[in-house]
Specification:
The protein is α/β, with parallel strands linked by helices. It has helices at 12-22, 39-49, 62-68, 80-87, 104-111, 122-139, 148-156, 182-186, 190-193, 203-211, 213-226, 264-272, 286-289, 303-314, 318-334, 342-357, 367-389, and strands at 2-7, 28-35, 53-56, 75-78, 93-96, 116-119, 142-145, 165-172, 233-237, 243-249, 254-258. Residues 8-14, 35-36, 57, 97-99, 102, 120-123, 147, 199, 201-202, 204-205, 263 line the site of nicotinamide-adenine-dinucleotide. Catalyzes the NADPH-dependent rearrangement and reduction of 1-deoxy-D-xylulose-5-phosphate (DXP) to 2-C-methyl-D-erythritol 4-phosphate (MEP).
Length: 390
């Protein structure tokens, strides 16, 4: 039996992970499940899977969670410290699927155990890539990517040497506003941005897909995870979302990963790795699909892509600034403080202000410096948004 824990169990990735585990209950012993405010979901899954412990990130939801799990034998805990404690409980396989920078600390704690960490929380690599990789190396932990593009690259690279890789191409659907003009995008509402043409994902990543901030994070994630140079990474708009990534080798060959837009591909690959096992995903009928389309991304429409390149060039704590400013700007868009296109403007302004103020590039990367930088970037984003409203 594989001992598994799922951080962010109530979210989109968490629920897809539970779907796979619940199909073969005899193979898994569930250690910890964690969630946020959806206590009902968390309690139901913890009961059904017989989890050892259920943790909500919110202290004030401890009592309702205890009530929901009364008589189940499932231990209950709440708050950030409880998340860390749950991450330090022995498990063979841990899914890191909390959304945002909040996933970094529990993810690092889980890495210290030395098992396998399935990494959906791309923000960990964007904010603290070298720290995450170094911690994994020190503890002999296997990191497996759970992003459709990065799982695709990982699979295309199997059995290959990185020295034979010329380029890595990650695809982008183009999100909800693929065919909208800048004028239309300027007036877009959160509801419109949260409708993805191909993927069913959490609200935040779906809006990040429409602004291409998700792809911006993924470019950085690619650089960190695979250790390639920024100019080896390309983004290709592919409206069908069936080719997830391509790896180009020195002999000119391109290896593409093709599959339905279902995150259970990437999750299942990480769950069973190094084996490949049957998964309950749709089999593609390419004759019926008929056409696959590709086009270059328009960087003028999507400044997030340019910003990602600037962040990689600067390095150090710049990724933590970028991610935190992006998270805050997204909050600002969601609560109506700024428009859709202003998210990139706010992020760029935060990067400009902070890069001249503090030595982001040379500072040591630790959990503390990343957390401090994250806080400063959030405050700066709030200040900029308030100035714009005034
Ligand atoms: P989601 O919003 O659906 O779920 C997020 C989970 O994190 C929930 O369980 C929520 O309760 C928990 N959470 C939120 N804030 C928290 C906090 N402050 N502390 C502790 N827990 C908190 O998000 P998602 O779409 O499942 O995405 C999860 C991660 O996976 C993100 O990093 C995202 O970029 C990445 N990812 C998602 C997909 C996808 O298809 N959804 C694809 C690739 C990568
Ligand atoms: Mg992705």
């Amino acid at each position: 039996m594989k001992r598994v824990s799922i951080f962010g169990a109530t979210g989109s990735i968490g629920q897809n992970t539970i779907d796979l585990i619940a199909r073969a209950p005899q193979d898994y012993q569930v250690v910890a499940l964690t969630g946020g405010s959806n206590i009902t979901r968390l309690a139901a899954d913890a009961r059904a899977l017989g989890a050892e412990i259920a943790v909500t990130a919110h202290e004030d939801l401890r009592a309702p969670l205890m009530q929901a799990l009364e008589g189940s034998g499932v231990e209950v805990a709440a708050g950030p410290a409880a998340l860390l404690e749950a991450a330090s409980r022995p498990a063979d396989w841990i899914m890191s699927a909390i959304v945002g920078a909040a996933g970094l600390a529990p993810g690092l704690k889980a890495i210290e155990q030395g098992g396998t960490l399935a990494l959906a929380n791309k923000e960990s690599l964007v904010t603290a890539g070298p720290l995450v990789l170094e911690t994994a190396r020190r503890h002999g932990t296997t990191l497996l990517p759970v992003d459709s593009e990065h799982s695709a690259v990982f699979q295309a690279l199997r059995g290959e040497e990185m020295s034979a890789v010329e380029r890595i191409v990650i695809t982008a659907s183009g999100g909800a506003f693929r065919d909208w003009t800048r004028e239309q995008m300027a007036r877009a509402t959160p509801d419109e941005a949260a409708k993805h043409p191909n993927w069913d994902m959490g609200q935040r990543i779906t809006i990040d897909s429409a602004s291409m901030f998700n792809k911006a994070l993924e470019i950085i994630e690619t650089k960190e995870f695979f250790g390639c140079a920024p100019d080896q990474i390309e983004v290709l708009v592919h409206p069908e979302s069936l080719v997830h990534a391509l790896v180009g080798f020195t002999d000119g060959a391109l290896m593409a990963h093709v599959g339905s837009s279902d995150m259970r591909h990437a999750i299942g690959y990480a769950l069973h790795w190094p084996e490949r096992r049957a998964l309950p995903v749709e089999r593609l009928d390419l004759a019926r699909v008929g056409q696959l389309n590709f086009r270059a991304p328009d960087e003028a429409r999507y400044p997030a892509l340019r910003l990602a390149r600037e962040v990689m060039a600067a390095g150090g704590l710049t990724g933590a600034v970028f991610n935190a400013a992006k998270e805050r700007a997204l909050d600002g868009f969601l609560d109506g403080r700024i428009g859709f296109l202003q998210m990139a403007e706010v992020v760029e302004e935060v990067l400009t202000r902070l890069s001249s103020e503090c030595g982001l590039t040379n500072a040591a990367l630790t959990l503390d410096t990343v957390a401090q930088t994250d806080q400063i970037a959030r405050k700066t984003a709030d200040t900029i948004m308030a100035e714009r409203q005034a």
